Amino acid sequence: MTTRIAIAGAAGRMGRHLIEAAHKAEGTRPTVALEAPGHPSLGNDAGVLAGVGELGVPVADDLAAQADDFDVLIDFTLPEVTLAHVRACHAIGRAIVIGTTGLTDEQKQELAEVARDIPVVFAPNMSVGVNLCLKLLDMAARVLGDEVDIEVIEAHHRHKIDAPSGTALRMGEVVAEALGRDLKECAVYGREGRTGERDRRTIGFETIRAGDIVGEHTVMFAGEGERVEITHKASSRMTFAGGAVRAAAWLAGRPAGLYDMQDVLGLKE
Ligand SMILES: NC(=O)C1=CN([C@@H]2O[C@H](COP(=O)(O)OP(=O)(O)OC[C@H]3O[C@@H](n4cnc5c(N)ncnc54)[C@H](OP(=O)(O)O)[C@@H]3O)[C@@H](O)[C@H]2O)C=CC1
Ligand SMILES: O=C(O)C1=N[C@H](C(=O)O)C[C@H](O)C1
What we know:
The protein is of the alpha/beta class and about 270 residues long. The chain has two domains: about 5-120 and about 235-265, NAD(P)-binding Rossmann-like Domain (Rossmann fold), CATH 3.40.50.720; about 130-235, Dihydrodipicolinate Reductase, domain 2. The protein is built from nine helices and twelve strands. Helix 1 (about 15-25) packs across helix 8, helix 3 (about 80-90) packs parallel to helix 4 (about 105-115) and helix 5 packs parallel to helix 6. The longest helix is centred in the middle third of the chain and has 17 residues, at about 130-145. The two termini are about 30 Å apart. NADPH dihydro-nicotinamide-adenine-dinucleotide phosphate (NDP) binds near residues 9, 77 and 102.
């Protein structure tokens, strides 16, 4: 059966790749494309926007009005826009895949409540490689334990508006959980001035924003005499878009619940 996909933020960096991925993947089809009211792309064909040729899917601004035309919404937009779409999907009973990062704790809480009634995949990074790295990080943290200093370094393009990246924060959470720490208490974001010696139980975050970097993450476990680094480098947004479309096909017809990419990829024990 073909999964009909709606794409929010269709004219955005990820939106265009999502249209292409949903069009090219077997078993999925982009049927709805959304942008905000007044957006210059409204009425344009989504396939033309994405560079894959005409698809007969004009960019529109009203999700609820197209409820009968899609099975799963994929949303890579802004936290407040994503939450409005979550509420709309709840009202019309549709599944949603969310890639948006930078949600507040309150927004995540609302998402968890809605996921009691509809199926939701929510993940800061949809690439297979990053999700494999999350497994490796759990193992590295358990083996190296409290004997090492842990730093998360991430680099992204100059247009990114949230920091640290959602992926970096998730990496920090995985490491903190493995070590029995609370990330909210042990995270240190950037350093400046007379900082004093490093406290071993902290987890440091460094952010680079420059040029057109698609997305790079390194977690460093540095001890006396050796260090381990686990690095992921994305060189194309298609790696995220392909993962999101795979998640949408996986989600169609599932029971209500809050899932992540580890569920989609079968990486949970
Ligand atoms: N989970 C993952 O694997 C990944 C997650 N991301 C995350 O995805 C998000 C988007 O990133 P990116 O594509 O680079 O950002 P962009 O700014 O390029 O895209 C966001 C799009 O959403 C549009 N938009 C704004 N308001 C609405 C609305 N009310 N309805 C529909 N569309 C709207 C924007 O329009 P405009 O700005 O023109 O008004 C824009 O086209 C970020 O949070 C990023 O961190 C990114 C890559 C991978
Ligand atoms: O904004 C981006 O581009 C990306 N955002 C995600 C994040 O915040 O982790 C994932 C990816 O690295 C690209």
